[in-house]
Amino acid sequence: MGTKLHFAVVLSGCGRADGSEIHEAVSAMLCIENMGCTYQCFAPDIDQAAVVNHLNNQAMNEKRNVLVESARIARGNILDLKEFNTKDYDAIIFPGGLGAVTNWCDFAGRGVSCNINTSVKQVIRKCWEDKVVIGAMCIAPVLIALVLADKHVKFTLGAGGDTAKKLEELGAVHEEVGVTDVCIDRENLVCSTPAYMLATNMLDVCQGAQNMVGAICQLLEEQRS
Length: 225
Known about the structure:
By secondary structure, the chain is of the alpha/beta class. It has 8 helices and 11 strands. It has helices at about 20-35, 65-75, 100, 105-110, 120-130, 140-145, 160-170, 200-225; strands at about 5-10, 40-45, 50-55, 60, 80, 90-95, 135, 155, 175, 185, 190-195. Strand 8, helix 7 (about 160-170) and strand 9 (about 175) form a beta-alpha-beta unit. The chain is globular. The protein starts with 5 loop residues before the first strand and ends with a helix.
């Protein structure tokens, strides 16, 4: 593959109920390394929308910071998303977890009329403009579909449903795929995989991540040839 490809991995906190899904985030990072590539983690420096006790799924009366919590997954090696520059990266991955639709945006509460964090929106648009390949897992493709609906971006949440239909009404195109499969939009350079939208075990999540990272690398190879 020649020069090592460099990925950005964007996190939304630490834990599936109020941040990034840890299995998905770690699988993405592991698969990037497994492909002989490198990565740098990012997260927006903002407060979480909520804090959830992952033992009983009850809300907690606490305030936590998305960047600080994401640093747990990144082992401290993480940057504020405002520091992201497309010139330094070949691809970017957004793992799932409810933080994707509560911290990066408020889709979980407002649906398609949601507000999207300015830094997150700008990064996605800039990546599209500069042809940085975008990867998204689980519920995170919702964000890509919202930001790039005007580009008729193709995405997957695994199976169809009300969420997919509402995003299609905005102009995005949903594709149903299997648990470890990848939806590949060659025109917009976007790859997505269902992960825990369909998966019932970590093995399928990791295999889907591997397939997605492989598809991203293939798109980058096609770009360069």
